[in-house]
Amino acid sequence: MIDMSNYNFKIIHPADQIWAQIDSAYEQTIFHTKEWFAYLHKIYSIRPFMVSVIHDNQVVGFFVGQKKWGGVNALYSPPMNTGTNNMGIVMFGPTTSEQLITIYQEFANWVFKKKIAQYIKIDDWNLHKDTDTYINESVYQDTRLLDIQHQGRPTYYINLKQSEDKLWHTMHYKSCRYCINKAIKNGLFVRRITDKNEITQFVKIHRQQICDVSRRKGIATRTYQEERKLLALCNLLFPNKVLLLQVIGNDDEKRAQVMASGIWLIGKKEAVWWTGASFQRYQHYCPNELMLWEALRIIKKEGCESLNLCGMASYKRKYGSTITYVPRLFFRSHPYIITMDEILKKIYRQIQFYKRKLKGKI
User: Fold this and answer.
1) Rounded to whole angstroms, how far apart are CA atoms 212 and 186?
2) Contact (CB, 8 A) for 245 and 261
3) Element (H or E) spanning 143, and its range?
4) Residue 225: Cβ within 10 Å count
5) For residue 14, is the peptide bond before it cis, meaning its omega torsion is within 30 degrees of 0?
6) Are 70 and 118 in contact (CB under 8 A)?
C-alpha cells in the first residue's frame, strides 16, 4: 500500500516515456492511455493536461485530464461530452479510497495556489473500490467526503472475477439464457474482427444498425460525423484495446447476414461496453444476447476483472449486472465559482421541468 503522507505535484509534458509508465500503472483504465488521447485529439482537438504525483522524490502516479476555459479556468478529468467515462489520478500501486481522497484534496489546494484553475471536476472509477469490493452509494456518506462536493453517477457493471459458469447462471433465464440457446440453435455465431482492413466495412454496417435502433426510438438518425468518430475509435485502439464483434446468421431465405455488431473498449482491469446494435428484422433470432455473452467470455479471458455497461438502460439488468456508482468530485477555489456547463445544465433541467408540467406529468 502506498504511503501518501508527504507528496508534491508537477506539470509534465505527455511524452512516450510517460505513457509507458501509465500503461504499467496499477489503476490504469482505457481512458488513461495514449491511444485514447489520440482519439480525443483527432475528434475533439483535446490535448492531455498531466501532473505527476511525487512522494519521497519518486513519481507514484499521474493526474490526467483537460485544461479548459468555460467561463473560468477549469480542469476536467475526464473531458466533458466525449464519451470518456472516467479518468482522474492513476496510481502505480494500490491505494485506498481514503488515500485517494486525501491526494485529491491536496491536489486541488496546489492547483488553486498555483492559479492553474479555479474549478476542478473529476470522475474517478477507482474511488468506489476498497479492499477490492464494489461499494454502493453509501460511500458518499463517509466522513472523508463531508468537505468535498460530490455526487454518484450510477451505472451497471458485471463482475468478471466470477467463474464462467456463475456468470452464465447469474443472467436472467427467460430474457437472456433462453435467447442465447435459441440463437445457437438457429445457427448464429459470433465473429471477431482481426484484420484492420475490415474496420471500414464493420463500421459502415454498425452505423446502419445504430441508425435502425435510433429510428425505432424516435431519435434523429446518426450523422456522418458519428461514423467518423467510430472509424477513428476503432482504428486508433485496434487491435489490443478494442474488441469488435459481429453476429452472423442465415435469414429466412438462408442468406448469411450480419445481424448485430458491437464495440468494447479493453483496459487493463476494466472493459467498457461502448456500443451495440442490431437490425430489427433479425431480432427474433436473438443475436444481441449471444453477442454480449461471447464478449463477456473473450473479455474475461483477456484478463479484465469487470465490464462497465455504461448507463442505466433497463435491458442491461438481464445480463446479471449490478448497480455501482462512479464518484464525481467537485473542487472550487471560491464557493461562488460556477462554470458554463453548470449554467447550461440548470437551464436544460428547467426547460425539461416546464415541459413535463405543461404535459400534466407534474
Assistant:
1) 23
2) yes
3) none
4) 9
5) no
6) no
Joined together, the cell numbers standing for residue 257 give 447476414
Q: pLDDT, tens digit, for every residue of 41-94?
A: 999 999 999 999 998 889 999 999 999 987 789 999 999 889 999 999 999 988
Sequential DSSP letters for 285-305: G-HHHHHHHHHHHHHHHTT--
Measured CA angle at 331 (ends 329, 337), to 5 deg: 130
Cell of 303: 484478463
C-alpha 140/C-alpha 327 separation (Å) is 8
Q: How far apart (Å, rounded) are the C-alpha atoms in residues 78 and 281?
A: 38
d(CA 225, CA 237): 18
- Res 209: pLDDT: 94
* Residues forming a β-bridge with 69: 73
Three-state DSSP state, 21: helix
CA dihedral 79→84→90→92, nearest 10 degrees, is -150
Residue whose C-alpha cell reads 473473450 in the numeric block: 298
Query: Grid cell 477513428 — which residue?
Result: 232
Confidence of residue 132 (pLDDT cuts 50, 70, 90): very low
Tell me how far CA of residue 193 lies from CA of 136, 200, 239, in angstroms: 36, 11, 9
Q: Any idea how long the chain is? A: 362
**Residue 147: other Cβ atoms inside 10 A:** 9
What digits encode the pLDDT tens for the residues 161-202? Answer: 999 999 999 999 889 999 999 999 999 999 999 999 999 999
- Give the Cα separation of 68 and 75 in Å (integer): 6
In sequence order, the 6+-apart residues with CB closer than 8 A to the CB of 48 are 14, 37, 40, 64, 65, 66
Query: And the C-alpha cell for 30?
Result: 482505457
Our CA angle for 118, 119, 122, nearest 5°, is 150
Joined grid coordinates for residue 280:
430489427
In the predicted model, is pLDDT for residue 224 greater than 60? Answer: yes
Closest by Cα among 292, 294, 297, 298 to 310: 292
Task: Categorise residue 71: left if φ over 0, alpha if ψ from -120 to 50, beta otherwise.
Answer: left
**Cell triple for residue 57?**
522524490
